[in-house]
Amino acid sequence: MIKGSNAFVPTVPLRIAVRGGVDVAALLLTEAGRVRGDGDIVFHGAPVHPSGAVRLLGEEHGTVWLETGLTAIEADIARVLVVGSTENGALRDARGLSAEAFAPDGTSVARYEATDAGGETAMVLAELYRRAGGWKFRAVGQGWLNGLAGLASDYGVDVAEEPGAGAGPGLGPGAGAGPVKGPTPPPPPTATPTPAPGPAFQVPSPAQVKVPGPAPTVVVPAPPPSAPDWTFGGVFPPYTQSGRDNEVLTVDGLPPGPVVVDLEIRGDGYTGLWTLTRLNKEGENLVNSTEENFRGRTLVQVPGNGRLRLKLRAEGPWQFQVLPLAAATRLTEQEVENRGPDVFLHTGGTADLALHYRGDDNLIVHLYELEGHDDPTTLPSYENVVNEIGKRRETVPLPEGPVIVHMEMADGPWRGRLKHLQPHSRTPVDGRPAPVTDISKAQGWLRRGKR
Hints:
The chain is mostly beta strands and 451 residues long.
């Protein structure tokens, strides 16, 4: 392919080989041409996108492999940029700089060789973008003299200076910023993205997704487009196990820290779930219910060794899942209705959570405020905001996200929604996109172009 050309590629998991001995990254962009946050930058320090759809696979003999599961990319992502960069020297010194996409059977479906690289230190080599319900590969070859910092700034990232550091000679406003090679390729044609199935832990992207089960239908609202992305906690494929009656459940290889446990019982007896200590004794009681056909989600802390052990008491067939925290339901102004405990994520600005509980037993709700809490292997102390018995109407004031809302106990039907939701402080109020500022993991890497 020549620079600027494009071609359809099959909508399957593609492996992209980036040759030339360069560092490789991927940026996932919305229709507005911007990343949503830290999680939309995939690089060596964060090699897997939170959705699991894009990941760096490693380097072999000067070739870096990038996997893009096109069917699993979230519906509000319109483009995936393939970026090459150098820490020392310029891209003209990279021999055989190219990007080539391969289908699962090893067939090459698109290839672009960047033959005219010059003094740039970062370049968008290629991009995958949505078109007519499928995906296209475009040969881009667009470079930046001011490296990753300049490239990232053009896609919505505000790359902060290190304390006491200046921009350096020749990198002030208007100097060296922006693309330096040829005309800017035209933006990809506007297309209405077609939602595609993704990994089981992917947050639903349609406005409402109905999840069937023996309990009443759960209406899961999609996250509001302006909300900051959720990046707290590890991402991993969901673990699922089915069985019947009492069991000891063991899951190995989990990232330490909070996860979501989803439990469904088909029966009318008692349901209990406990953590097991290292001495194999009952620890924290997670579920204590006499509800028929129990269905609920609870928050569990995986120990440092990555091994989660739980004791289950159940009468009847059951299904058990361990999910990343990012799979929890986002709270919005659309109503959620269910019965049983649940875990929610609040990513917007200040709001009030209105709850209508119609059960006869305890309603217990905890808040975990994550602002300033940087350790994903632990949770901060919670604030107990509801602890009542019987039918209730409660309105809980929520701080600005990110906040985990854990409905720890709710034996009975309930519904809830946000009221008086305000814009997040990182969300623009004048209609113009605001720079992304939650790029904590990528900041040092992006600043390379400012040195």
